[in-house]
Design brief:
The complex is a heterodimer of chains A (about 140) and B (about 650). With about 140 residues, chain A is an alpha/beta fold. Helices cover about 40% and strands about 20% of the residues of chain A. Chain A has helices spanning about 15-25, 40-45, 65-75, 95-100, 115-130, and strands spanning about 5-10, 30-35, 55-60, 85-90, 105-110. Chain A has a five-stranded parallel sheet, with helices on both faces. Chain A is globular. With about 650 residues, chain B is α+β, with helices and mostly antiparallel strands. Chain B is built from 21 helices and 23 strands. Classes of the chains: A alpha/beta (about 140), B alpha+beta (about 650). The interface of A and B includes residues 12, 14, 15 and 117 of A.
């Protein structure tokens, strides 16, 4: 597994840059796809030939928010196996609880410190891609 | 009777003087001097005899009439001529003849009588009562007699006797004590009620006795005083009520009257009294008095204007509170109209209809209305009026009794409460809104405000990381300052958020095991205690009604400060408490750096710091949160300290 596809759902340009920077330094070769709002994310997931290996999902998003996107993903048989990491500035209890109730795989509050942030992003990638055993990715017949 | 005899004797004397055995003879001897004079004297005698209303007659030894006065015609119905020579005894009623003969013989034998009674039969056959006085002249062998018709007197006497009997019987069946007393206050008459009351079965047993002999001393003395007033001053005591005590101690209420008894000379010879037993009436009066008193007290105590409407006469009576509550004179006789006139114009139709309906519906016994009533001063009172309809056996209403209560204050209070409730609801809504706003703010603070901060610090760091070689030391330092500023800003926001969360509606107080709280707090500082070999004294605490999370935080902050502002080699921290009736008072004493008294107030102000960040880290939120938590528990927090001498923080929690 040398090509990893990560979907980043994030409206904040700064966070997009920072996340990309963090992943750049990762061990794995990765392709980052960015959706800037909830609707765009679901549209992208519906239309893509290759499903992402990991979804990094912000909560505060235009149009559909992160929690709504999460709910939609976890209800979709095709998508529900994809690990979804909630990445939020919020540490509000209700966001955490709602996320896990909607079957988020993980909830992470974005560290303020850049180094920590980079560490966290790398750890996520490392953990979910290299360590966690997941079912084989279903291939999109159209694209293959 | 005596009187009658007297008169007979008086009238008899002049006659007997003429014909007296001694004097009469002398007179006769003297008068014999002349025949003429004798005839004259005889005529005169005959005239006197004829003039007498009593029959003056003479009877010879054989019992035959010799001479008779004209009165024989009236008395016996015979002319004197008819009777002369006739046997006197023939006139006498058969039953009385024997005793008459005996009396006749006794007189002949020398005994004089001026009072002998027998019955004679008149010519008409009627019976007449005759009283005789007679003297026998042995020389003349003749009996001088005066016969008086006493039939009328006898009849009168009989009538008197009968009347007396009637009076007696009447007196004895009277349920009133009737008695007379002499000047020595001794009973001279006592009717059945009187002697039976005195404890005897006959009048004779009571007569001659005084009240001292018959009754209790106290009563007898009072009676004596009264009797003396009557007997010596001639006063009349009429209709006096007094309680009388018998020898056995039983008490009787009497209605008494006493008047003096006078003889013909108007001299007081005794007194007559009547006493009427009114014990039952007194008891009834007392019962009524007590009931009335109770009623009056209740009427006063109820603070309601009691009314009594006589439906038959239409009159309305009011209790005293009609004046007190509404300013009207209850003594005035008031008609129903005078009441309805005072009912507020907007209510009068409804209330009047309701009263009429209550009275007219036989099944209705109770009536109640609330309405406005115009007081005498023109002000309007809200009243609650309740009444009962009293009906006769036929269901016809006769009276309605009730009470009117001034409920103005209650109504006003209800209105005020309603207004207050509206305000309260509005306030609650505002509060809920403000809580929502606060929550919104909290969310914004935790998320939206952090976002730009994170960007600032992250990109500064990224700048440093990527362009490290291009930046000099000063640039690196500036970046460091900017990053640390952003870090502090984040901390401040988080603290502010925490502070604002204390005291939202979510914090409920529950019975909490305080020892568990202390244990939890101690666990937080376990490492610290270990590292510094600190001595921490914790008391055993009773369960308290607190917000567990907040109280834990309170202790955590205070114990944390005790460690934080402490340079001692061996920090010593003591937690204590005291039961102060309405509150629990705690203290947390340390051997730390202490606080200058001028900052005692300031330390509790949010973000107020006493030290530079180089000395002690923190935003200055800890004690402000403590203060807010304590206040949320109805208590106060204060500090006692001196610089370098350690601090003692006190706080109270309302039970």
């Amino acid at each position: 597994m040398n090509h990893v596809k990560i979907l980043l759902v994030e409206d904040n340009e700064g966070d997009i840059i920072l996340t990309k920077e963090a992943l750049k330094e990762g061990k794995l070769k990765n392709e980052i796809v960015v959706a800037r709002d909830g609707e765009a994310a679901l549209e992208l997931l519906a239309n893509t030939a290759v499903l992402p290996d990991l979804i990094l999902l912000d909560i505060n998003l235009p149009k559909l928010n992160g929690l709504e996107v999460l709910a939609a993903i976890k209800k979709d048989d095709r998508l529900k196996m994809i690990p979804v990491i909630m990445l939020s500035t919020s540490s509000a209890e209700k966001d955490i609880i709602t996320s896990y109730n909607s079957h988020a795989n993980c909830f992470i509050t974005k560290p303020v410190d850049l180094t920590s942030f980079i560490d966290v992003i790398r750890s996520i990638e490392d953990f979910w891609i290299s360590i966690v055993k997941l079912p084989k990715k279903k291939l999109n017949t159209v694209e293959l | 009777m005596k009187k009658a005899t007297k008169i007979t004797a008086e009238e008899f004397h002049p006659v007997s003087c003429i014909g007296h055995p001694d004097e009469g003879k002398t007179l006769c001897v003297e008068k014999k001097t002349s025949d003429h004079e004798l005839v004259q004297s005889h005529d005169q005698l005959q005239k006197i005899m004829d003039q007498s209303l009593d029959v003056i007659c003479t009877i010879n030894e054989q019992g035959s009439f010799v001479k008779l006065g004209a009165a024989s015609k009236v008395t016996w119905g015979y002319l004197s001529e008819e009777l002369i020579g006739k046997q006197c005894i023939d006139l006498v009623h058969e039953e009385d003849r024997e005793k008459t003969r005996l009396a006749f013989l006794s007189i002949i034998n020398g005994s004089e009588t001026n009072h002998f009674e027998n019955r004679c039969t008149k010519k008409t056959g009627e019976l007449v009562f005759i009283t005789w006085s007679a003297t026998w002249d042995n020389d003349d062998k003749i009996m001088y007699c005066v016969a008086r018709d006493t039939t009328a007197i006898k009849k009168a006497e009989k009538k008197i006797r009968e009347e007396r009997m009637l009076l007696r019987s009447l007196m004895n069946i009277l349920p009133i004590n009737v008695y007379t007393k002499d000047l020595q206050e001794r009973k001279t008459l006592s009717n059945r009620a009187d002697y039976e009351y005195s404890g005897f079965t006959s009048e004779a047993s009571v007569l001659g006795k005084s009240d001292f002999d018959l009754f209790d001393k106290e009563s007898a003395e009072r009676t004596h005083l009264e009797d003396q007033l009557v007997l010596t001053k001639g006063e009349r005591i009429i209709g006096k009520e007094e309680q009388h005590i018998r020898k056995d101690g039983s008490r009787t209420w009497f209605f008494i009257s006493k008047i003096p008894l006078l003889n013909e000379e108007k001299e007081i010879i005794g007194l007559m009294g009547i006493s009427y037993d009114i014990t039952k009436r007194k008891e009834t009066e007392e019962t009524i008095r007590i009931a009335k008193e109770r009623y009056d007290v209740v009427v006063k105590a109820t603070n309601e204007a009691v009314w009594d409407w006589d439906i038959l006469t239409g009159r309305l009576y009011w209790g005293e509170n009609y004046r007190t509550l509404f300013g009207f004179n209850p003594d005035q006789v008031i008609s129903l109209e005078s009441w309805s006139k005072q009912v507020h114009p907007d209510d009068v139709e409804r209330v009047s209809k309701s009263v009429i309906n209550a009275v007219r519906s036989p099944e209705v016994l109770q009536w109640e209305e609330e309405y406005r009533f115009i007081k005498s001063d023109g002000s309007v009172a809200y009243v609650l009026d309740r009444g009962f309809v009293i009906r006769n056996a036929g269901g016809e209403p006769s009276r309605m009794i009730g009470a009117m209560q001034d409920v103005t204050q209650k109504i006003l209070a209800e209105v005020a409460i309603k207004e207050l409730n509206v305000k309260l609801n509005r306030r609650a809504e505002e509060l809920a809104a403000s809580n929502d706003e606060l929550e919104q703010f909290a969310y914004v603070a935790s998320h939206d405000l952090q976002e730009p901060l994170r960007m600032i610090s992250s990109f500064l760091q990224l700048l440093q990381k990527k362009y490290d070689t291009l930046l000099d030391e000063t640039a690196t330092q500036y970046i460091g300052q900017a990053v640390s500023g952003a870090e502090r800003m984040k901390r401040l926001i988080m603290d502010l958020l925490e502070y604002s969360r204390v005291g939202t509606s979510r914090d409920k107080r529950t019975m909490t095991d305080m020892n568990a709280v202390m244990k939890q707090v101690m666990q937080i500082f376990a490492n610290k205690i270990n590292d510094t070999s600190a001595i921490v004294k914790v008391p055993v605490l009773p369960p308290m009604s607190v917000n567990k999370m907040q109280i834990t935080q309170l202790f955590q902050n205070l114990v944390g400060n005790a460690f934080k502002y402490n340079h001692a080699d061996k920090p010593a921290i003591e937690i204590g408490f005291e039961d102060k009736k309405s509150v629990w008072q705690f203290y947390i004493k340390d051997n730390g750096i202490g606080i200058n008294p001028k900052y005692f107030e300031k330390v509790f102000i949010i973000f107020q710091r006493l030290h530079t960040r180089n000395e002690f880290s923190g935003t200055g939120i800890g004690l402000a949160i403590c203060k807010k938590i304590v206040e949320r528990h109805g208590g106060t927090i204060w500090v006692e300290s001196a610089e370098g001498k350690g601090s003692t923080f006190y706080f109270t929690i309302k039970k």
